[in-house]
């Protein structure tokens, strides 16, 4: 095939099984857009490049495939940065194609020139600057391979404008040849034997499950493991959905806003099996006091995670797809004896869970966020995707919405990116059209990327946008209330922007719920409407997410009751 | 603690930035840095001398190993490796004192590489202490400029950075 570089990119997309891309055109990528036009390659035009990259990320999280987005040079590319960093820290596979000025103009501060490789180096798994069209097939092959294998992550390909136009004889390589990366992560059997031995000696074990289980699709092994020996499971924010939320041994999320039982189990356990986790500071509390009585075993694909934040007693480095089934198999002869050893502990922890569920004080007059989220959780089917923005509503969604399977909870965990939710929900729905997709956002977060409502209307993307409207930057006010003497510096909105009208103006139906009984009368009907809908739920300003482990405290030093 | 690290990288633009930013991000001070060709045109080799706590060094080696363009990483132990770096020193000298200065240089096995009516330039390699002692003795004559290359390090014996890598390739990373 004698084709230009742009067409070579499209052909490579097809070879990689890409079904849909997100993007926004501009000068440097016009040749690429011309080929998209000619080939009718499925493409979603967002209203902002940040929307495109978060949508590709949401698509990737919902499907497990590589998300793809396109932006032009300079400002187009820099608008991707927040989205790339969001994907990078949560290990989400993306391939981002950015246009670069034509080769003779590189390095001359040309119109719309930015050093994209320089800017994205610290926030990508890998990146490329392509000056010659002949390099495109190899680079695309490598980029998809690097993005999806091992610990997934975003890869940026910055393509000079003239490389899109130059003609090449296109041959897509069938193998990658990388000298510094193999994508193969076998585990060491001897380490697994040691882990089995540790579990045989344990009396108070806990599983601490993270996003690695989602990305490796190993939640079934995890559930089998937990069930075979009655071992309680807690998870990180990123690991929600890995454990069955209705199983008696699932303690809920751990960490700063984790459940009482989960945090106490971590503090009391004598063996902690950390699986696909990275011991983020939001989840460990003061790190020197994390699981202080436990031997810690760390299963992870990335050996750089071992001993990074928490020193562990044993590491099982390798792909969970290999290590978890092997662990189960080697454990099988001992399950009964382990179960017996750990019975008392299991009962104790389950009792803690029953005595201290996530809770809130009912308000006779107002709808509370927690109440609305719980209600929607009971109304929604098990296979609903929940996306969130960032703030109190995000934590309440994690606490009160039951997530039954991995890839159904889509949230910016590591970066905490406000404005992530709406475009991510949009991408998730496009990736998993058969599923119901809900978004929980705040009145702060929704405004960062509310322009994507227009995209949602354009393509009639059926998501239900639920804005938990407290008229404040809730999570910020909570910290100011607790740690800054209630000095609400720039966290209270003065104007009352009408979010329902914003939705309507962009072509989406909008409803407002204010009265408590409307949760029963109106909400179910609205949720069952066809097509995209925004529901603005008015809640009180002052509410705290609880429990809370203040920064620098141990996980068992939770604040259980707030002022609100 | 001081450490010497060799990093074998694909000969491509952008790799040096990725490697060096690993250090700056963790607020490690790089004492010296040197980049150059190797026995294979495919690779460049970066040698970095830096200070930092041992457990962070371990973390650093793993993070460096994850960069797709990094083919191998090796931490050198002083007893198993040879280190070299070169220093050029420009010192004032006149016909009166030139012989005195050259005598000192001879003691230190420093080579004269430029002689002008009023200046001399010396080249000296070797340990920090030796260079320091030499500069101290030259100081009274008036040192005009000192410049040092980054140090480079090589393992003694048949062990090479690539054989080191094969041992670590267990985790499936960085196989050569
Ligand atoms: C892009 C960005 N800017 C600032 C923050 C800091 N921040 C964290 S939560 C929060 C408040 C979020 O307010 P809202 O979306 O209304 O949610 P609420 O907490 O009220 O539920 C802010 C400002 C952030 N996480 N992301």
TrEMBL record, chain A:
Keywords: Amino-acid biosynthesis, Branched-chain amino acid biosynthesis, FAD, Flavoprotein, Magnesium, Metal-binding, Thiamine pyrophosphate, Transferase
Key word Electron transport present: no
Domain Thiamine pyrophosphate enzyme N-terminal TPP-binding: 4-116
Family affiliation: Belongs to the TPP enzyme family.
EC number: 2.2.1.6
Note accompanying the cofactor annotation: Binds 1 Mg(2+) ion per subunit.
InterPro entries assigned to the protein according to its UniProt record, in alphabetical order: Acetolactate_synth_lsu, AHAS_TPP, DHS-like_NAD/FAD-binding_dom, THDP-binding, Thiamin_PyroP_enz_cen_dom, Thiamin_PyroP_enz_TPP-bd_dom, TPP-bd_CS, TPP_enz
Origin species: Pectinatus cerevisiiphilus
Thiamine pyrophosphate enzyme central domain segment(s): 192-324
Name of the protein this chain belongs to: Acetolactate synthase
Recorded catalytic activity of this chain's protein: 2 pyruvate + H(+) = (2S)-2-acetolactate + CO2
Domain Thiamine pyrophosphate enzyme TPP-binding: 389-537
Cofactors: Mg(2+); thiamine diphosphate
Automatic annotation (TrEMBL), chain B:
Superkingdom of source: Bacteria
Recorded GO CC terms: cytosol
InterPro entries: Acetalactate_synth_ssu (IPR004789), Acetolactate_synth/TF_NikR_C (IPR027271), Acetolactate_synth_ssu_C (IPR019455), ACT-like_dom_sf (IPR045865), ACT_dom (IPR002912), AHAS_ACT (IPR039557), AHAS_small-like_ACT (IPR054480)
Keyword annotations from UniProtKB, A to Z: Amino-acid biosynthesis, Branched-chain amino acid biosynthesis, Transferase
Enzyme nomenclature, EC number: 2.2.1.6
Swiss-Prot/TrEMBL GO biological process terms: isoleucine biosynthetic process; L-valine biosynthetic process
Pathway in which this enzyme or protein is active: Amino-acid biosynthesis; L-valine biosynthesis; L-valine from pyruvate: step 1/4; Amino-acid biosynthesis; L-isoleucine biosynthesis; L-isoleucine from 2-oxobutanoate: step 1/4
Keyword Transferase in annotation: yes
Pfam families: ACT_AHAS_ss, ALS_ss_C
SUPFAM superfamilies xref list: ACT-like
Reaction it catalyzes: 2 pyruvate + H(+) = (2S)-2-acetolactate + CO2
Subunit architecture: Dimer of large and small chains.
Function: Catalyzes the conversion of 2 pyruvate molecules into acetolactate in the first common step of the biosynthetic pathway of the branched-amino acids such as leucine, isoleucine, and valine.
Name of the molecule in the record: Acetolactate synthase small subunit
Organism whose genome encodes this protein: Pectinatus cerevisiiphilus
Organism lineage string: Bacteria, Bacillati, Bacillota, Negativicutes, Selenomonadales
